[in-house]
Amino acid sequence: MRVHVVSDVHGNSTDLARAGDGADAVVCLGDLVLFLDYADHSRGIFPDLFGVENAHRIVELRTARRFEEARAFGAGLWAGLDRGPAIEKAVRKQYAELFAAFPTPTYATYGNVDIPHLWSEYAASGTTVLDGERAEIGGLVFGFVGGGLRTAMRTPYEISDEEYAAKIEAVGEVDVLCTHIPPDVPELVYDTVARRFERGSRALLAAIRRTRPRYSLFGHVHQPLARRMRIGATECVNVGHFAGSGRPWALEW
């Protein structure tokens, strides 16, 4: 069996359509939406609505961790727009392209920038959406936990530590534990370009130590200090920033 794993797709529907080439299945760990590309400030929902110069400014503030200033600056821009409908319209356009690009079969969970309640409208019969659930693929049991933990960024699908831990518990013992965010290990959560620690999950780390899956697969941190490490019997792998690389990570057995 060969499974291709992608995460942090962020609007890259062109490469997503080829992600299943040579694989028996595709696993997607979320973050389909591209709200703002930190490498190219002309791409995404934000610059489409407010222009590149404003995108430059909000990236500058967020990178400097001046989150309150960034929120105030953003609020000023949104003052003349009905935020909810404007974002949903743009997200729907991206989801229509991205879900149409998913190979069959695909097993997917949500990232922290995704909007879960919209997925059911776009997921075709070949795409199985799982969150706090398990699926058997080629004789191995895969567990899926989507979303991220609450941060100052306030992205759409951030949940409490308790809710996240409950989903980890619901998945139980699996061969491959698939999440959007990494376990809370400094080398896995530190982004070397953004120069900050992202939030990892302590509940995930505890589950890895307790249940000893063969693999823990995740994304979220685009340029991690360490892309993989072993925790006990478990190989922990950041599968990469698919939006930038266009290449899936391959799991074979």
Automatic annotation (TrEMBL):
InterPro entries: Calcineurin-like_PHP, Metallo-depent_PP-like, UPF0046_metallophosphoest. GO terms for molecular function: hydrolase activity. One of its GO terms (biological process) is cell wall modification. SUPFAM superfamilies: Metallo-dependent phosphatases. Residues 1-224 form the Calcineurin-like phosphoesterase domain. Transmembrane segments: none annotated. This is Metallophosphoesterase.
